[in-house]
């Protein structure tokens, strides 16, 4: 079994959009929010790219975070390298890890490497210009047939680990880069930092070969959560996917589980728009799904219902960033995850043991357990009021309701009404 960094098995991640988190849109202002996130229960902060952004073919007024001019510098709009180091130091002081966003597939079209490195560092179009991947017209595709690109990429990643104490990377569109590169880079970086954490924005099985990545995205699962919320499919489709997914990856593989992230929020709308009344149960599901590594995206911690502009400043107003019922909801979920080893990822937690019920096109009833700890989830993943009927067998007994903190009895034979999108998560 792969050995992940010890902190990661029961972790909750937070994706920080520095540009939009605060009215100032700076690393210094973002650092002032870290204590709020620590109190929320966040274990690691993934920073969206903080590097200088290209100007050639720039989109919008500020450009895409993922069009990078220089891998070893800080975007002056966000602050200085000292501000970045202060951010990392504050996160570490508070007991949180910092993950950087790494974009290995492409650079901006005016990146330092385009002028300063051989033409063979980039794939070229018929006119000899750096190739544009897909419709990303503000970017230039690197050529991984050239091993010098491998070396330069790995050296740039090492720069942030060795000199600036970051704890790992979220690797953008990891499937577009040869797995051989990631194997080379991971081995090199773990010689410098043995407890390095790597998250792939991809779902290919070979990402876990040789223990390269600790976690990958759960895009398929996320799309199913959207589809169930909108009733394009019933919960049976989600259940079928979970059963099939058991054999798809090593048991040690972690899967990023989320109801929102920067792509979903900006291009498809907030979880309020996509999931409506189902957003609460879907968030809870990401905290109890086997193998899941739950993610909170900027603004979700205060219930900010907004789709952020991607290429421009569009910050959360200061008056909207206050602890509220959404904050308490996520705090309860992080406490649930931290307090129950049965929910751990990376092969340490319990498998999903399903309990048969009378409404399997609406209802999911399951247990996750390890010696000394049981978590029972009863989830009506539908917009219908239903009369549930199921037998709990050996799982009957007294529990604690994770979201209210109150004692709750789980009877051997349960017959009870459940409202649309309602759920119970019981622990003991």
TrEMBL record:
<protein>
    <submittedName>
        <fullName>Alpha-amylase</fullName>
    </submittedName>
</protein>
<dbReference type="GO" id="GO:0043169">
    <property type="term" value="F:cation binding"/>
</dbReference>
<dbReference type="GO" id="GO:0005975">
    <property type="term" value="P:carbohydrate metabolic process"/>
</dbReference>
<dbReference type="InterPro" id="IPR017853">
    <property type="entry name" value="GH"/>
</dbReference>
<dbReference type="Pfam" id="PF02806">
    <property type="entry name" value="Alpha-amylase_C"/>
</dbReference>
<dbReference type="InterPro" id="IPR006047">
    <property type="entry name" value="GH13_cat_dom"/>
</dbReference>
<dbReference type="GO" id="GO:0003824">
    <property type="term" value="F:catalytic activity"/>
</dbReference>
<dbReference type="Pfam" id="PF00128">
    <property type="entry name" value="Alpha-amylase"/>
</dbReference>
<dbReference type="InterPro" id="IPR006048">
    <property type="entry name" value="A-amylase/branching_C"/>
</dbReference>
<feature type="domain" description="Glycosyl hydrolase family 13 catalytic">
    <location>
        <begin position="20"/>
        <end position="337"/>
    </location>
</feature>
């Amino acid at each position: 079994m792969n050995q992940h960094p010890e902190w990661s098995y029961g972790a909750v991640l937070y994706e920080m959009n520095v540009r939009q988190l605060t009215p100032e849109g700076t690393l210094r202002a973002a650092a002032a929010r870290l204590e709020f996130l620590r109190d929320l229960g966040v274990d690691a902060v993934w920073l969206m790219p903080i590097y200088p952004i290209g100007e050639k073919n720039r989109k919008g007024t500020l450009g895409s975070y993922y069009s990078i001019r220089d891998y070893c510098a800080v975007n002056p709009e966000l602050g200085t390298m000292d501000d970045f180091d202060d951010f990392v130091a504050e996160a570490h002081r508070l007991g949180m890890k910092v993950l950087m966003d790494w974009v290995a597939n492409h650079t901006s079209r005016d990146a330092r490497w385009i002028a300063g490195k051989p033409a063979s560092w980039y794939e070229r179009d018929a006119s000899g210009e750096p190739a544009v991947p897909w419709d990303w017209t503000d970017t230039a595709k690197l050529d991984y047939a050239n091993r010098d690109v491998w070396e330069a990429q790995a050296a740039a990643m090492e720069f942030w680990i060795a000199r600036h104490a970051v704890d790992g990377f979220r690797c953008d569109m990891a499937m577009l880069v040869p797995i051989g590169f990631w194997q080379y880079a991971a081995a090199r970086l773990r010689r410098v930092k043995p407890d390095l954490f790597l998250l792939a924005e991809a779902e290919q099985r070979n990402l876990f070969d040789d223990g390269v990545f600790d976690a990958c995205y759960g895009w398929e699962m996320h799309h199913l959560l959207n589809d169930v919320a909108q009733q394009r499919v019933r919960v049976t489709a989600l259940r079928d996917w979970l059963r099939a997914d058991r054999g798809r990856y090593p048991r040690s593989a972690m899967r990023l589980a989320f109801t929102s992230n920067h792509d979903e929020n900006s291009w498809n709308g907030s979880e309020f728009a996509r999931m409506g009344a189902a957003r609460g149960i879907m968030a809870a599901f990401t905290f109890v799904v086997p193998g899941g590594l739950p993610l909170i995206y900027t603004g979700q911690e205060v219930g900010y219902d907004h789709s952020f502009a991607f290429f421009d400043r569009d910050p959360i107003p200061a008056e909207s960033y206050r602890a509220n019922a959404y904050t308490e909801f996520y705090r309860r979920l992080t406490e649930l995850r931290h307090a129950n080893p049965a929910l751990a990822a990376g092969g340490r937690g319990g498998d999903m043991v399903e309990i048969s019920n009378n409404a399997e096109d609406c209802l999911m009833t399951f247990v996750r357990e390890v010696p000394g700890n049981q978590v029972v989830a009863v989830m009506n993943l539908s917009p219908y009021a239903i009369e549930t009927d199921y037998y709990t067998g050996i799982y009957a007994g007294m529990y604690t309701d994770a979201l209210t903190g109150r004692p709750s009895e789980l009877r051997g034979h349960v017959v009870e009404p459940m409202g649309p999108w309602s759920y119970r998560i019981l622990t003991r």
